[in-house]
Amino acid sequence: QVQLVESGGGLVQAGGSLRLACVASGRTFSTYAMAWFRQAPGKEREFVTGFSSSGLRIDYVDSVKGRFTISRDNAKNTVYLQMNGLKPEDTAVYYCTLRAPGGWYPTVGRTTDEYAYWGQGTQVTVSS
User: Fold this and answer.
1) Fewest CB atoms less than 10 Å from the CB: which of 44, 67, 85, 122?
2) Rounded Cα–Cα distance for residues 119 and 125 (Å)
């Protein structure tokens, strides 16, 4: 069983920045295929950004390209989401997620059913 714990959400004005962190349990973190999704009130949970297992492939949803950056620190079992230039439409609960460990995923999964473990979520609110 893998546990994911997110932190770093909060309230920020439009144009501001936040950095989310997700700490994962497990011994093979360096091969984890991880991603960030978000869910706004009344909307479906949507893909934001993620890594392939190798970490060499990274995808972003078009709406955050150039503003958000995903990164990982394997020594700390942590994935980060740096969010700059935040907009009110970025307001959502942000979830860290992981594809089933032990598998090798050469591409980035962009749908919720490709992921096996989810964190509890962290609220990001951007005021105008």
Assistant:
1) 44
2) 18
What one-character-per-residue DSSP string does 31-91 give? G--EEEEEE-TTS--EEEEEE-TTS--EEE-GGGTTTEEEEEEGGGTEEEEEE-S--GGG-
In angstroms, the CA 93 to CA 95 distance is: 7
Residue carrying the six token digits 């919720």: 112
Classify residue 98 as exposed, middle or buried by CB count within 10 Å of its CB (0-12, 13-18, 19+).
Answer: buried
Is 112 strand, coil or helix? Answer: helix
- Whether residue 8 contacts residue 20, with contact meaning beta carbons closer than 8 Å, is answered with yes
pLDDT digits (tens, 9 = 90+) for 30-65: 789 999 999 999 999 999 999 999 989 999 999 999
The pLDDT tens digits for 66-97 are 999 999 998 999 999 999 999 999 999 999 99
Give dist(CA 15, CA 99) in Å, integer.
32
Residues 92/105, Cβ–Cβ less than 8 Å = no
